[in-house]
Amino acid sequence: MAGKMMQAVWYTCYGGGAAGLKHVETPVPAPGNGEILLKVEAASINPVDWKIQKGMMRPILPRKFPYIPLGDVAGEVVEVGVGVKNFKAGDKIITNLGLAGGGMAEYAVAKETSTIQRPSEVSAADGACLGIAACTALQSLTTVGGLKLDKNEPRSNVLVTAASGGVGHYAVQLAKLGNTHVTATCGARNIEFVKSLGADEVLDYKTPEGAALKSPSGQKYDVVVHCATGIPWSTFEPNLAPTGKVIDITPGPSAFWTLAVNTITFSKKKLQPLLATPTAERLECLAKLVKEGKLKTVIDSSYPLSKAEEAWAKSIEGHATGKVVVEP
């Protein structure tokens, strides 16, 4: 597709929020060794995307300006680079572009190693949401939390904070695939929604009980998938089982300090900062669950590429129920 142009949205400096996004026409990228060129059918926004724009990862990211954001995409293979063995033009795929971004455009380049075939039962929009959000939920519960998504396992008590958001709504559903009792927190308007995902009990985070994270039925938590911010270790600690773990998906300096103190004092209760890594293996597992009807993506809102600023602002606002999607 040498010489062909595409519509894209990028930003040219740190800051600016939705107003900092610019609609441009730019050349379609070419796939290199082991890479795939795809026509983007859907891309999803994650908080990390606008945090990069805010400068929270400078000077590491973006590597250069202008920068086309978004890493979680689904689409159709247009062309493959040298060495690509498992995909061909016309294949429907789900992929994670990594923090190099590129998804807020009509075309993007992905690594073959980060890409899977999209089952026909999984829509492009649903597939595009699985990367960071669903992989974070899966990694938190299984790799770090040690849960097996199996009803025959011993029962575990799980707490999910901010359970109506992107990661949280997946974490509730995935936890319930195992032998778990799930307590969840969210805003009052989303209580029934979170119950519909399978949560056994739901707390309004603005009430005294919700702010204290106390289980209404007196459960002590074996695993906490912490998707909110601003809750100190002192609030979690009395609610944990003797070897309970809090998995912090957006760790700040205080999370690493708490981890250090836990380690030095040989505490059996631990806070574990998580650096999520979407992999093809995790994407395969999640797409299979969606295909089988065991996991669903809840899309808060979907926007055309021409209204990318509205999608960006919706995600920054922080009250989306489920995921925000852009469909070129």
From TrEMBL:
Annotated CDD domains: MDR1
What InterPro entries does the entry give?
ADH-like_N, Chloroplast_QOR, ER, GroES-like_sf, NAD(P)-bd_dom_sf
One Pfam match: ADH_N
Domain of life the protein comes from? Eukaryota
Citing just one GO molecular function, the answer is:
oxidoreductase activity
**What SMART domains is this protein classified in?**
PKS_ER
Enoyl reductase (ER) domain mapped to chain residues: 16-326
Task: Tell me the protein's name.
Answer: Alcohol dehydrogenase superfamily, zinc-type
Species source reads Artemisia annua (Sweet wormwood)
Q: What is the lineage of its organism?
A: Eukaryota, Viridiplantae, Streptophyta, Embryophyta, Tracheophyta
